[in-house]
Amino acid sequence: MEYEGIVYRPPSEAYSLIVQVTIGCSHNGCTFCGMYKDKKFRVRELKDIISDLEQAKLDYGVVKRIFLADGDALVLKTSELKIILLKIKELFPGCERVGVYTTPKDILAKSVEDLSLLKALGIGILYLGVESGSNEILKSINKGVTAQNLIMAGRKVKESGIKLSTTLISGIGGREKISENAIESAKLISAINPDYVGFLTLMLESGTPIYKDIQNGIFHVLTPEEVVQELREFLENVEVTNCIFRSNHASNYVSLSGTLPVDKDKLLSDIDITLKGKHGYKQEEYRRL
Ligand code: SF4
């Protein structure tokens, strides 16, 4: 197996075989993201990807889950993904799920029929960073798409039957846009109704444009209490059915999880206990990406 640079994967893929299909992210422009800044985006040669899969077969034999890295393997043409997924089926007949990071543009470039074919070939979950539902915030972080684009992309995935995991970022609008981030994100998630919605909390990476804005006093980072208030406002306003909610990522100040809508009241009550000072916030030095 060959890995190039730092490889990122969602927490739920901790025990998956990770195979790099692309190097970096095809967008690589979000102002808060430093994950792939040291990588020039490219799609790996198919022969190298196949060779990694064959090596993994020799090394591990049985594999139950596979994650195709880096930043957005869904950018590959459907015909290229088909070759990779058929090879996975041949080598790992017991593989239960293939997971992939995607950008909204990758999804929009595919038809529902393409996505349904990819589901039939093994892709079980797509991870989509929506970051915020506010058009102003999406523009300010250079996400490259509008909230409407994100809704269209999310609904396409749902229509195909592939599970959709979405992530939002607490504090991504700064102190001036706490309510806007909460309410517009709740509207976006309500419109998509994904299978999973997770919150990360903004982490500051030196060298990113947002980091420079903070140093120049243009962007104001939320306190832990403000992060939790923003989360509360989101939860109050979101309307989904059977959606697993998590804000238990290493970057979060307070760990919460449940299923929406059934656990909404419990989640709000846990937040209120935290805000009343009866629960502590994770210390800054223990927060991670
Ligand atoms: S947040 Fe996602 S889409 Fe944006 S640059 Fe980072 S990896 Fe790419």
Question: How would you describe this structure in keywords?
Answer:
alpha/beta; pyruvate-formate lyase- activating enzyme; 17% strand; globular; iron-sulfur; S-adenosyl-L-methionine; iron; metal-binding
List the helices and strands and how they pair.
Elements: E1 17-20, E2 22-23, E3 42-43, H1 46-60, E4 65-69, H2 78-91, E5 97-102, H3 104-108, H4 112-120, E6 123-131, H5 135-140, H6 147-160, E7 163-170, H7 178-192, E8 196-201, H8 209-215, H9 224-237, E9 243-246, E10 257-260, H10 264-275
Parallel strand pairs: 1-4, 4-5, 5-6, 6-7, 7-8, 8-9
Antiparallel strand pairs: 2-3, 9-10
Iron/sulfur cluster (SF4) is lined by residues 25, 27-30, 33, 35-36, 71, 103, 129.
